[in-house]
């Protein structure tokens, strides 16, 4: 199968074909990029679209270098082998975790206001993102979802690194990935158009797909 997608929406349409047997799930997109992947899935399957907000936990000397992640409703998840190589412990990152919790809460307020996440207890849940690189963000999201007692959880992404995809199978009931390229280097290399999304873009998708109630 061709591993280069035109954009996130086309990737989501192809994922939706693979997920067609799941009836009316709660589809949780990891913002920002995951929302454009998730929208065609909800359009095809029905159900509910919402966001599950996550934040990367950065390496203090180079914050863009992620060593962990946190998702709303969940606890921090760290790449422990990486921390060991860097000579760090999770406790060393308490300040970074606190800062990301604050930013996570701000983004939840922007995207959802006072509305809580949908009730996931006993439900079919699809967690959608635009790709899997290290997987630490997806792992944090899946663990937060698992804590809510869903009936079944599927992780759906268009493309991912081979080792990461394999590791995610321990975190979800099913992992649906369209392409696992041998030469994976970054998610964006597998899209012709991979522009950054804004908060306004996320809100526009959510407005088109309002949660019931």
Automatic annotation (TrEMBL):
A molecular function (GO) term: glycosyltransferase activity
Pfam families: Pribosyltran (PF00156)
Domain spans labelled Phosphoribosyltransferase: 23-181
The entry's keywords: Glycosyltransferase, Transferase
InterPro entries given in the database record: PRTase-like, PRTase_dom
Protein name: Phosphoribosyltransferase
Highest classification ranks of the organism: Bacteria, Bacillati, Actinomycetota, Actinomycetes, Streptosporangiales
